[in-house]
Amino acid sequence: MSAAWFEEAFRADYRAVYPHRDLEAARPEARWLVAHGVRGRTLDLCCGFARHTLLLREQGVDVFGLDLSEDLLAAARTLPDAERLLAGRLVRGDARELPFASASFASLVNLFSSFGYFGELGDERVLAEIGRVLRPGGLALLDLMNPAFVRANLRDETRREGEDFLLRERRALVDGGRRVVKDVELVRHGESRRWREDVRLYELAELRTKLAAHGLGVREVHGGFAEEPAGDSAPRLLLVVTRD
Predict the structure, then answer these.
(1) Distance in angstroms (rounded) separating the CA atoms of residues 62 and 148
(2) Nearest to 126 by CA among 178, 202, 70
(3) Where along the chain do the CATH 3.40.50.150 domains lie?
(4) 5-146+202-243 topology per CATH
(5) Which of 16, 110, 144, 202 is least surrounded by CB atoms within 10 angstroms?
(6) Considering the entire predicted model, what is its pTM?
């Protein structure tokens, strides 16, 4: 059986291809998360190589990270001071079936468009799991793509080269503009691999309804980590969500 696209995309070469997604880029985002209520026992859901996990830990948050990618979790060990701050705090797992007890987290963060990967039913399972593991009164911060912004600014094709790679990406909107697909070719060290990313874009009204079905309510909506106002022109759809 072939790997799902999200297993193919997030491999060991991710950090080399996207070097700008580093600790310094994540630092103001981690500060924003704490300023907007992230505290106590916290889950960084789909943590990647744990850059936000590490920075939240530096700020005193009792944070744990979970991701499906073995490669990215292994890469977390290369972060400064990660061995000391994150020892025993990174878990490999699936967002649709979290290996944690119910009501075990005061806060949860899901960052960098890590939602919309699993189809309608799978995405519903992720929301159900978020609702399950959060304590009553708990807080979730969801960082999603803003559908209106994506539709207005989608670049059909891009090409980027680094010292040891060539990355080609072709993008398109499908399903009446409800999904964005990206065909990716990565050439590195003379070898090529290809995959297709396929992410569902959720409107705010859809999300309110889906979240409410799992005891979750939208408290605040922001347009970005630099306090951009929410709206069609905002780069992000940042939701501050509370658990009933």
Answers:
(1) 35
(2) 202
(3) 5-146+202-243
(4) Rossmann fold (3.40.50)
(5) 16
(6) 0.96
